[in-house]
Write a structure and sequence with these properties.
single chain; about 325 residues; alpha/beta; Ubiquitin-like (UB roll); Elongation Factor Tu (Ef-tu), domain 3; Rossmann fold; 3 domains; six-stranded antiparallel β-sheet; six-stranded parallel β-sheet; 7 helices
Length: about 325
């Protein structure tokens, strides 16, 4: 095996024969996270920006990580020159124009942007939206990737939220925003179309989940798809008729709106969305799980779906304190 050049930021390292990328970086005193050196802890995960990581270096990673060329430095014996990074590129921004604003409910805005540059994204990922004064917030993409220049977002208004209040009250059609490169790992890949899918969201967590459902159905997903969307009360729900229509159109898609307080209308389950889902689907072995919304719900449900049989590799979660569509 010949020597291979590895480039990390402004560092260039030559990987010797029989040496992993982690070995080479540590030999040159380049500080990156690591622990077990056996691929178990995944703390030395990097991303390949140029070149292709060996298949063995992606052992144990989720499919969405492999698809984005992430790899484990401790398992990587490079087969070609590689340009690598500790984190995804989030510094690219393109200009986007507001082309539509609609009210989904009293507190949630459907915002549609047209981007100057086409973006390569997956429904369920998030972007940073930045206004002219530099104020920036993260919001999940609600539409599927068929529309490369169109992005839709569900922006929930919070009292005192500088960006969300501005978006609801002052942002106008024709105004421009800067949009970052898409980020995040909570999205659909059409690699196992027979796998059953459970999606649970609260509040504007419906945004990425609706996009994931749309993308899965667009790709002809054959497995059963269950979507549970929850709110405290009836007026917090939205897109109920649209989701019900989708369920009538696709026999393998099932939609359950949930409210945890007050009276539930006909067709709406009474209870928290995650608890309703767990009671209806007690055996989740082999299922793919998507969880979006309030951090407490996401963390609690991650544990519960695991206890009910779901594989950790099949659990994709987006708590909105990270990709904040609910926190300003």
């Amino acid at each position: 095996m010949s020597l291979k050049k590895i480039t990390l930021d402004h560092h260039e390292v030559v990987c010797q024969q029989g040496e992993t990328v982690l070995d080479a970086l540590l030999r040159e005193n380049i500080d990156i996270p690591y622990s077990c050196k056996q691929g178990a802890c995944q703390s030395c995960m990097l991303r390949c920006l140029q070149g292709t990581p060996p298949v063995a270096a992606q052992n144990g990673l989720k499919d969405v990580l492999r698809q984005q060329n992430h790899f484990l430095a401790c398992l990587c014996y490079p087969q070609q020159e590689m340009v690598i990074s500790l984190s995804p590129h989030a510094d690219f921004f393109t200009e986007a124009t507001v082309i539509d604003k609609q009210r989904l409910n009293a507190e949630t805005l459907l915002l549609t942007l047209h981007t100057k540059e086409a973006l390569d994204y997956f429904a369920g990922q998030f972007v940073n939206l930045k206004r002219a004064d530099g104020l920036m917030r993260s919001y999940s993409i609600a539409n599927n990737r068929v529309h490369a220049n169109t992005l839709t977002f569900h922006i929930r208004r919070l009292g005192g939220g500088r960006f969300s209040e501005w978006a609801h009250q002052e942002l106008k059609i024709g105004d421009t925003l800067a949009v970052s490169n898409p980020q995040g790992l909570c999205y659909y890949l059409p690699n196992n179309k027979e796998q059953n899918m459970l999606l649970v969201g609260t509040g504007s967590g419906l945004a990425p989940l609706a996009g994931i459902v749309s993308e899965a159905l667009h790709h002809g997903h054959h497995g059963t798809i269950h979507l549970f969307h929850g709110s405290r009360e009836m007026d917090g729900l939205y897109w109920v008729e649209e989701m019900q229509q989708l369920a009538r159109q696709y026999p393998n898609f099932h939609y359950t709106p949930c409210v945890s307080r007050g009276d539930a209308a006909v067709g709406v389950a009474l209870g928290r969305a995650n608890e309703v889902a767990m009671s209806i689907l007690p055996n989740l072995k082999g299922w793919r799980i998507y969880l979006c919304g309030h951090p407490d719900m996401v963390n609690q449900t991650k544990r519960q779906v695991y206890l009910q049989g779901a594989n950790l590799q099949d659990i994709y979660a987006d708590a909105f304190h990270v990709a904040s569509a609910t926190l300003d």
